[in-house]
Design a protein that fits this description.
9-stranded antiparallel β-sheet; binds alpha-D-galactopyranose; mainly beta; 1 helix; 5-stranded antiparallel β-sheet; Beta-galactosidase, Chain A, domain 5; 2% helix; 337 residues
C-alpha cells in the first residue's frame, strides 16, 4: 500500500492512501494561520481494514442504503449483502472503501493531485457489470479539494459514488461538532423509515429542524422531539439540493466553525447531500493520537444521488448503461473568517 502527500502553495496538506482512497489527514489554517488536521481517522492503516465507520473513504458502488439488499434492472433481480440490519449500505462488505486503488500523480495549472482507479468486476458485491472507476483528487491553490468521479460499465448497473470524510473544523480531536454553523441549499429532504430507507416522500424543510436555508447552529435543534431526528439519533438524512439545472456544479453547503473561524463550502453536481452528524460514533473508535471519537465528533456531507434510488423510480436515476459515462464533481473549499 502507498501513501501520497499533496501540498498547495498556501501550506494546505492532504495525505491520501491508495487503500480505499482514504484521506488520512487534511491540514488547513484557521483565522490566525494555525494549521490543524480537520478530518477524523486512524494512525495505523490496518485500523481501516475492518470496523472503520468509513472515515475519509471513497464509497461505492452505491453510497448509502439500498432497501432489503436488492433491486431489479430490466426485469432481473440482483441480491446484495445486508450489511446494515436488513439493508445494504455503502456498497456492501468489501466496498470501494476496502479496495486498493491504482494511483497516478497529476499536476496542472494551479493544482496538484492524484488519480485513483479501480475495476469493480461483474458480480462483485452482487452488482452487475464490469465497472471501471476513476476518481481524481485535486488540491488547488484556491484551497479547494476537488473530487472528479468517472465510471463506465459493460452491462447496465447502478452507481452512486461519494466521499465519506468526517470533518471537525476545530480539529479532528476537538470534541463535538454541535457548535458548527451550517447552511444547506435545500428546500426539501427525503424522510426515512426507522431503518433509514427513504419513504419516497420529498418533504419541505419549512418550519422544521431540517431547515438550514439560513445558517443554523447544528446543535440547536438536533435533539428536538422530531420522529425523523429520533430515528436517526440526529441528522442522517438526504437533502434535496436546489438546482438551477440538473448536473450544475452549485453550492450545496457552507460550514462555519466560530472558534477557529474555519469555513468549508461544498459544491456539487449531484442532486443530493447526506448530512450525517456522526451519531453512530460512540467512543469505541480510537483514532489518531489516541482520540476516542465520541458521538457527533465529526460531520459528513456526502454528495450523492438519493438513497435507495434503484427501488424508487421517482428519484433521479442511478442507472448506468454501456456507452454512457458516469460523471460527478464535488468541491470542498476551505477558508476562514
Ligand atoms: C452514512 C449513513 C449513516 C452511517 C454512516 C456510517 O452517513 O447514512 O447512517 O451508516 O454512513 O456510519
Amino acid at each position: 500500500m502507498k501513501e501520497f502527500t499533496l501540498k498547495n502553495e498556501n501550506g494546505i496538506e492532504m495525505v491520501v492512501s491508495d487503500f480505499g482512497g482514504i484521506v488520512r489527514q487534511l491540514r488547513v489554517p484557521d483565522r490566525d494561520g494555525r494549521f490543524d488536521d480537520v478530518v477524523l481517522g486512524f494512525d495505523a492503516i490496518e485500523s481501516y481494514f475492518d470496523g472503520s465507520p468509513y472515515f475519509g473513504a471513497l464509497v461505492g458502488r452505491y453510497g448509502n442504503r439500498i432497501a432489503k439488499g436488492g433491486f431489479s434492472l430490466d426485469g432481473r433481480a440482483y441480491t446484495l449483502a445486508k450489511n446494515n440490519g436488513e439493508n445494504h449500505l455503502h456498497g456492501g462488505i468489501q466496498g470501494f472503501d476496502k479496495q486498493v486503488w491504482k494511483t497516478e500523480r497529476i499536476e496542472g495549472e494551479g493544482f496538484t493531485g492524484l488519480v485513483l482507479k479501480y475495476r469493480s468486476e461483474d458480480g462483485e458485491e452482487g452488482y452487475p457489470g464490469n465497472l471501471d472507476v476513476a476518481v481524481a483528487y485535486k488540491l488547488t491553490n484556491a484551497n479547494e479539494w476537488i473530487i472528479e468521479y468517472k465510471a463506465v460499465v459493460d452491462q447496465s448497473t447502478v452507481v452512486n459514488l461519494t466521499q465519506h470524510a468526517y470533518f471537525n473544523l476545530r480539529g479532528h480531536s476537538a470534541g463535538d461538532i454541535l457548535g458548527h454553523e451550517l447552511v444547506l441549499e435545500a428546500d426539501g429532504f427525503t424522510p426515512t423509515d426507522d431503518t433509514l430507507i427513504p419513504t419516497g416522500e420529498i418533504r419541505s424543510v419549512e418550519g422544521s429542524p431540517f431547515d438550514f436555508r439560513t445558517s443554523c447552529v447544528i446543535g440547536e435543534r438536533i435533539d428536538d422531539a422530531d420522529t425523523q431526528l429520533e430515528q436517526a439519533g440526529g441528522y442522517d438524512h438526504n437533502f434535496v439540493l436546489n438546482k438551477s439545472s440538473s448536473g450544475a456544479l452549485e453550492r450545496a453547503a457552507l460550514v462555519y466553525e466560530p472558534e477557529s473561524g474555519r469555513t468549508m463550502e461544498v459544491l456539487t453536481t449531484e442532486p443530493g447531500v447526506q448530512f450525517y452528524s456522526g451519531n453512530f460514533l460512540d467512543g469505541s473508535a480510537i483514532g489518531k493520537r489516541g482520540t476516542a471519537y465520541a458521538s457527533r465528533s465529526g460531520l459528513c456531507l456526502e454528495t450523492q444521488h438519493f438513497p435507495d434510488s434503484p427501488n424508487q423510480p421517482q428519484f433521479p436515476s442511478t442507472r448506468l448503461d454501456p456507452g454512457d459515462v458516469y460523471v460527478s464533481t464535488t468541491v470542498y473549499r476551505f477558508g476562514s473568517r
